[in-house]
Amino acid sequence: MKVKSKILNFMHLDREYSLLSGRNACIVYTYFSLLDIHGTGALNDVQFYVFLKKATDLNRKEIYRVFDMLDVDGSSSIEYNEFYLMVCILVSIQDHEEKKFIYHHSRTVFDLMDKDGSASIDVEEFEIFGLLFNLGLKAIRDIFNDFDVSGDQQLDYGEFKLFAMACIDRGKTLSKKEKDQERAAKSEGKNIARQQSHFSASSQERDGCVIM
Fold it and tell me: CATH: 1.20.1630.10, 3.90.1300.10, 1.10.3210.10, 1.10.238.10. Which one for 100-212?
């Protein structure tokens, strides 16, 4: 899923808790109120569709799958707390902080996927996770099998928590690797700049000798 909302570009999650600041939460509430044209305190499927269609590149079928996932109370509408959660997920994806978000809110993410309230999630329920956090079907099944410790084709919260912890560990490893690559690229850039400067100075000296 790609986030393309210009409004969300100015929002970022708190690094420690992966939540929006009070100011951004107020902006999200105002945005929610503008979408809630009927003043019911909730968005119906059409209003939610319009929001996600503008904010992401999800198609109609995918948007309605997300709607069903977020509608945890079965009211056929999205209330503000559910809308706020969706915005937090979008911001985490936009800033490439989704692994950290999963780690901090593993219980919430697990409950969202557990549509039948069985206190466990199967592969089909886990697929919505992949849809939100940009994991392909093969990656979803591989992750599921890796963390299905009991081998019952179900992930309970304890197994999902292990997955969430692995996410943050892998995220830290990737972050360190990216920083090392960035430092190496900067160092290489400086070396190239020095070489170009040296070459330019040498050329000027040769030109001066020819003129003399």
Answer: 1.10.238.10
pTM for the whole structure? 0.71
Alpha helices in 39-122 (DSSP H): 45-55, 60-70, 80-94, 98-104, 106-113
What is 1-95's CATH topology?
Answer: Recoverin; domain 1 (1.10.238)
Query: To the nearest whole percent, how much of the chain has pLDDT over 70?
Result: 77
Do 100-212 and 1-95 have the same topology in CATH? yes
| Distance between CA atoms of residues 162 and 147, nearest Å | 7
CB atoms within 10 A of CB 48: 23
Task: Read off the DSSP letter of residue 13.
Answer: -
